[in-house]
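Quick start: load a record and inspect it. Here is Neuronal-specific septin-3:
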Amino acid sequence: PVESKNEAAMSELVPEPRQKPVVPMKPMGINTSLLGYIGIDTIIEQMRKKTMKTGFDFNIMVVGQSGLGKSTLVNTLFKSQVSRKSSGWNREEKIPKTVEIKAIGHVIEEGGVKMKLTVIDTPGFGDQINNENCWEPIEKYINEQYEKFLKEEVNIARKKRIPDTRVHCCLYFISPTGHSLRPLDLEFMKHLSKVVNIIPVIAKADTMTLEEKTEFKQRVRKELEVNGIEFYPQKEFDEDLEDKTENDKIRQESMPFAVVGSDKEYQVNGKRVLGRKTPWGIIEVENLNHCEFALLRDFVIRTHLQDLKEVTHNIHYETYRAKRLNGNGGLPPMTVETEENHESNL
Ligand SMILES: Nc1nc2c(ncn2[C@@H]2O[C@H](COP(=O)(O)OP(=O)(O)OP(=O)(O)O)[C@@H](O)[C@H]2O)c(=O)[nH]1
Ligand SMILES: [Mg+2]
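Running the structure step on this input writes:
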């Protein structure tokens, strides 16, 4: 009723004569072709403006045993306290009896662009005596977010922008043992790689020597391949040769990124840098000669963030959606609107 009142009031207003919109013109002399400039390239600027206004969602999940530096790494990635670090004492008491899932939201702004970041932590994963099926609550959470999105999407009066809580990226922390992947690692990645973008990382890489690190990386890559585990960026989703060349390098050389996180600054050559003090000196987090943190950061945030979101929407969510709508398992049956219905809605 409120809306219709507004409408009535509006229609009584006499519209003022509008000025003709100004069409941007290409400066003369640069493009001398008769047909001239159309203005297609302004789409980029238009998109930029829209994104500046609305901001965007990015949801990142961290999985791995307690104490592997998950919270520290996320804080290092986003240069802020976006995830609570474990207190270091009484750790045993704190470990939950089952896997818990905790999502914390933040708004980060840079250069006028707002990112609504959600960090999804999974305390308790891999910390039980029996870790069988401990990936299940995580898969359930991921699917629940797809379900929420789907429910909003099939709504007749759906929102213009559906809030996106879907997990765009899952960082999986591998313990820096130097041996091989544990059955738990393989089980988790095997099941979850079908529903979410997994990026495996070797945690606390400063605890390994350079040789150990290189060898461990190679072994992990081999084991993932032998077990048929597809991590992000998945080969089958490369869109062209340029993608393939770029992503092959990541798949064959960078993965799994051997990372170090820290929230402490040290003075190195007169500059303050994030680092960790070790018996061998300061390990600089952002120095590529020391670890691959910067590679991971560039990959997740600076080159592939939009792609992580697109693969989530176009592949993982689409797979979920197709399954749900085909099988109709649980979702209220779709009602077909009649012609009459449709008109009366207009
Ligand atoms: N050597 C080393 N220590 C690290 C690194 N990252 C974090 N730590 C330390 O490891 C301990 C645990 O770090 P957290 O970030 O709390 O680990 P977490 O995986 O979030 O732990 P939970 O929240 O208990 O699951 C802290 O004392 C950190 O300072 C790293 O890259 N190298
Ligand atoms: Mg933590």
